Amino acid sequence: MKDLRNAYRRYALAFATSSAAICIGFAMQTSEAAILVEEEAEAPGSGRTPLRLPQDMNVPVLGGVSTLPIMPKERGHGASLPSRPVLVAVADDKPGGFLPAEEHTPRLGCTVSLQTETTAGALVALTALAPCHGGELALIEHAGLRFHVETPQDGSLQLMVPALSETANFSVSYPNGDGAFASADVESLPFYDRVVLQWQGARGPELHAREFGADYGELGHVWREAPRDLSALAGGTGGFLMRFEAVGMLSAAQAEVYTFPTGLANARGDIAISIETEVTQGNCGQDMALSSMTLHQGNLRAPRELRMQMPDCDAVGEFLLLKNLVEDLTIAQK
């Protein structure tokens, strides 16, 4: 019985071994046949078309430059832009509801201020603060007197201005319209006589005062090249000249003011006042407008104006004496 069971086991093992061998052999023959068919198809003259994988399905190749799969190419959606421009109709009428234009708002910290202080010689010290107008031209105006001065870069301006009225009103203004006003009481004004010359444009007109018979170039000749200063009023023997100008500004208003202490004079006689102008390359052949004012014993006389055409440039270097624009001052000893 034992021998019979061993015989059955041997038969089962032999059958299993034979079956496995048959399967392995069949698989190997199939693979070899497929390889043979592909080689024959690739061989020249075989007339057979090889079976290729779709191009979209790239298989990584070991040992090549890259084993990463290649992404498929982008394909458009088939849309195309129109070949002709598209015209859009726009209404000519403006739609309602537009917001109004924004109004100018003053910059913070840009307020202009002006202060006055009466000083000796019936002069008024002006202090203008304009922090946002540094380097700009400031226009000073007072009782018909007007002139430009250049503001320092920090916006602070300090200058002395001769008063032309006992209740003196002053203003300072800048190109954009900003400005300020201030007043000062000048009680000593009746003790001083003044002559004002003003014009607009290039340098040219000159105010000359020849005191008590002095000739040109002598000690009593007061003009821009020998203006003196406030100390000349001491003792009542002489006057001084103040000039207000913006150097290099051809369109700026300019002025010269001569002052003599008539109410304190220790001499008597006449002071010859004249206005002369030099013909220069800057004013030759051009129109010039001048005006003058005279202050006597606290009373400001009406201004005199003169408009003239300067000679041609052939006369450069010559001087013109302008008559009937000012009058001499008569001084009575006190």
| Structural class assignment | mainly beta
**Mean pLDDT, all residues:** 80
Backbone shape? elongated
Task: Report the strand count.
Answer: 18
**Rg over C-alpha atoms, rounded to the nearest angstrom:** 53 Å
Q: How can the largest sheet be summarized?
A: 6 strands, antiparallel
How far is it from the N-terminal to the C-terminal residue, by CA?
A: 176 Å
Tell me the series of helices and strands, N- to C-terminal: HEEEEEEEEEEEEEEEEEE
Tally of helical segments: 1
Strand-residue proportion = 25-35%
Extract low-pLDDT stretches: 32-37
Helix content: 10-25%
Explain this structure to me?
There is one protein chain. By secondary structure, the chain is mainly beta. A hairpin with a 5-residue loop joins strand 6 (167-173) and strand 7. The model is unreliable at 32-37 (pLDDT under 50). Among the domains are: 109-188, Sandwich (Immunoglobulin-like), CATH 2.60.40; 192-334. The longest helix is centred in the first third of the chain and has 41 residues, at 2-42. The strands form four sheets. Strands 8, 11, 12, 14, 15 and 16 form a six-stranded antiparallel sheet that branches. Strands 9, 10, 13, 17 and 18 form a five-stranded antiparallel sheet that branches. Strands 4-3-6-7 form a four-stranded antiparallel sheet, with no helix packed on it. The chain has one helix and 18 strands.
